[in-house]
Amino acid sequence: MKKPFPVLPVNAVIMVSLVACACIPIPDHRKLAAHDLKPPTLLGVEPVEPEKVVLRFDEPVAVVEGTILLIPETALKEVVRSEDTLVLEFFDAQTPGAEYQLEAAVQDDSGNSMNFITRFYGFNPNVPDVLINELTTRGSSTHPDLVELFVCSEGNMAGVCLYEGTPGDWDHRFMFPSLHVKKGDYILVHFKPQGIEEEKNETGNKMESGGLDASPHAYDFWVKGGSGISGNNGVISLYSNPAGTILDGVLYSNRTSESDENYRGFGRASTLFRAEELVYAGGWKIAGEEVAPEDAVNPDGSTATRSICRDSNSTDTDSAEDWHIVPTGSYTFGELNSNEVYEP
């Protein structure tokens, strides 16, 4: 008869297990923790010269050979590594304002790698000074929503971007093609086109475009598929390109800080975000520590023919003090602004 297998007490089993484990060397996790395992991060991309683009990372990196791909195809001359930046130098100049897609892989000094895809816009060395000069946010079927820009210095509009909103959050945007402008020129951007053949983007002849409120004295442009601008509460902003610096901006609202509890009175998270982004970019001045509807231009009283505009000198202090509403029929899109003020 076979003897039964002896059953050990639980504490004995645990003791045996501990003795067995004690024979196995325990790895030194301190060495593993000290090793850099974090991949690099791309912080930004910026064209700095017609033939150069700078990539900024959170640590020194090198490009993995053979991984750079540019669309449209652009011949790469060399890549210069300098601390936490990589400078891409091309044989030919970028097309001002054109969109480029860059794909590459980089590796840090510890061997951690990262693949990325990013976009940038061709370097424009001659961006003009431009102001948002007049607008209607409460357009009609015969006078739809419209924004006028006033050119303060000669330059090229290639890549300049006008937003209903800001680069971080927008409903409509228009990116300009190459257009040489001179001081004193006017540009009209129509935010609610009819979609008819006569509506043409003018890059030469100011008389070329038809359509509602097209001006023979200004360059007319049409936001394709545009449905108009928010009537009471919003931001219009202008940037040198979609990833560039702010040129101008307008915050408007007929609300107050007491209008709601959740969004500091602006009514929506997106409007509050846009207001904060405009202020952070230096495009609007505020009275307190946080932006509020009271800092904005109040559009109440404006209509399709009572526009919101600057004075005839296009005074610009980045505040609501620059703006007034003109009397009925005194809108001046494409011409010198009116100093008349609407009295309810």
Shape: globular
* Integer count of domains: 2
Separate helix tally: 3
Give the helices and strands as they follow along the chain: HHEEEEEEEEEEEEEEEEEEHEE
Layout of secondary structure:
Blueprint: H1 10-21, H2 29-34, E1 42-49, E2 52-57, E3 61-63, E4 69-71, E5 76-82, E6 85-90, E7 99-108, E8 113-121, E9 130-136, E10 146-151, E11 155-156, E12 161-166, E13 169-175, E14 180-181, E15 186-190, E16 219-222, E17 233-239, E18 246-253, H3 269-280, E19 308-309, E20 324-325
Parallel strand pairs: 15-16
Antiparallel strand pairs: 1-2, 2-6, 3-7, 4-7, 5-6, 7-8, 9-10, 9-19, 10-15, 11-14, 12-13, 12-17, 17-18, 19-20
Q: What is this structure, in a nutshell?
A:
This protein has 3 helices and 20 strands. The chain is mainly beta.
Describe the structure.
This protein is mainly beta and 344 residues long. The protein folds into two domains: 42-121, Immunoglobulin-like; 130-325, Lamin Tail domain (Immunoglobulin-like), CATH 2.60.40. It is built from three helices and 20 strands. It has helices at 10-21, 29-34, 269-280; strands at 42-49, 52-57, 61-63, 69-71, 76-82, 85-90, 99-108, 113-121, 130-136, 146-151, 155-156, 161-166, 169-175, 180-181, 186-190, 219-222, 233-239, 246-253, 308-309, 324-325. The protein has a six-stranded mixed sheet, with no helix packed on it. Strands 1-2-6-5 form a four-stranded antiparallel sheet, with no helix packed on it. A hairpin with a 6-residue loop joins strand 17 and strand 18 (246-253). The longest helix has 12 residues, at 10-21. The N and C termini lie far apart (113 Å).
